[in-house]
């Protein structure tokens, strides 16, 4: 379990907010109280939604700060049980059928969606109801998100919209054993995918599979990397492919940091 408290220069309102990242690695929390931020995570291996919900009960019991009321709570789900649906084809009554074409859903799975104006698409995904239920009475504003939704928010901030921008812009959101990739050609989304990997070689296999499929030339592209430090072996291997990279370093003492 990692825990840290620090002062933030970005929080100006005297509000109390909490973000919870629910992932294959466990649970990560970011609590913002005015100008202060408190981050801590619980690493849980081989989890399933029911086990996570039960573990959350014990975490809340041992952390009094989690028992307080918040102005806003965000639940962010990080997994590959999601699918992007262009706005043109989205229907709130039938989107689950389209999601099932890309994701294997269980009988009791609950689904949700977030609209992403930047790419004019809906991100549809599976959510964990037992976790949301434990915080429903702690706030008047409970927000469900998928990590890909937040990823695209970051992409919009960093994408180069200059006239001399490269033809292809590749965005990598890297976690300890999985990553998301979004590829844009002339500012239009071409591919979004999510891969799991065991080591740097397997990571590079998936990355180059995507780039070769799209026939991307290294000199015509720029890669933006979220989630890891420049000293990471993955960065060094990418540099062998291209020097056209930008690294957005972690904000917290964990690789699971991009969502708060």
* Quaternary structure classification: single chain
The CATH topology label of the largest domain is Nucleotidyltransferase, domain 5
Secondary-structure-derived class: alpha/beta
Number of separate strands: 14
Strand order across the largest sheet: 1-4-3-2-5-9
Through-space gap between termini: 18 Å
Please identify, by name, the CATH architecture of the largest domain. Answer: 2-Layer Sandwich
Helix and strand topology:
Elements: E1 2-7, E2 16-23, E3 26-33, E4 36-43, H1 49-62, E5 72-78, E6 82-86, H2 95-100, E7 110-116, E8 121-127, H3 129-133, E9 142-146, H4 147-158, E10 168-174, E11 178-185, E12 188-196, H5 200-213, E13 221-226, H6 233-241, E14 245-248
Parallel strand pairs: 2-5, 5-9, 10-13, 13-14
Antiparallel strand pairs: 1-4, 2-3, 3-4, 6-8, 7-8, 10-11, 11-12
């Amino acid at each position: 379990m990692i825990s840290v408290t620090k002062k933030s220069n970005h929080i100006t309102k005297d509000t109390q907010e909490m973000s919870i990242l629910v992932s294959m690695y466990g649970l990560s929390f970011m609590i913002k109280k005015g100008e202060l931020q408190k981050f801590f995570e619980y690493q849980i291996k081989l989890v399933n939604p029911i086990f996570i919900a039960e573990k959350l009960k014990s975490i809340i019991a041992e952390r009094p700060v989690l028992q307080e009321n918040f102005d806003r709570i965000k639940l962010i789900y990080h997994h590959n049980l999601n699918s992007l649906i262009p706005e043109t084809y989205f229907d709130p009554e039938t989107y689950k059928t389209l999601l099932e074409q890309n994701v294997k859903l269980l009988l009791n799975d609950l689904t949700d969606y977030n609209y992403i104006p930047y790419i004019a698409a809906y991100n549809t995904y599976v959510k964990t109801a037992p976790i949301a239920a434990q915080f429903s009475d702690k706030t008047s504003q409970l927000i469900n998100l998928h990590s890909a939704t937040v990823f695209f928010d970051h992409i919009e901030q960093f994408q180069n919209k200059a006239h001399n921008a490269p033809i292809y812009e590749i965005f990598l959101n890297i976690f300890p054993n999985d990553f998301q990739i979004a590829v844009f050609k002339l500012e239009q989304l071409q591919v979004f995918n999510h891969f799991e990997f065991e080591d740097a070689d397997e990571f590079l296999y998936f990355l180059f599979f995507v780039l070769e499929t799209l026939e991307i030339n290294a000199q015509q592209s720029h890669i933006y990397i979220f989630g890891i430090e420049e000293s990471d072996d993955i960065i060094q291997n990418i540099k062998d492919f291209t020097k056209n990279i930008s690294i957005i370093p972690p904000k917290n003492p964990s690789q699971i940091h991009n969502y708060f």
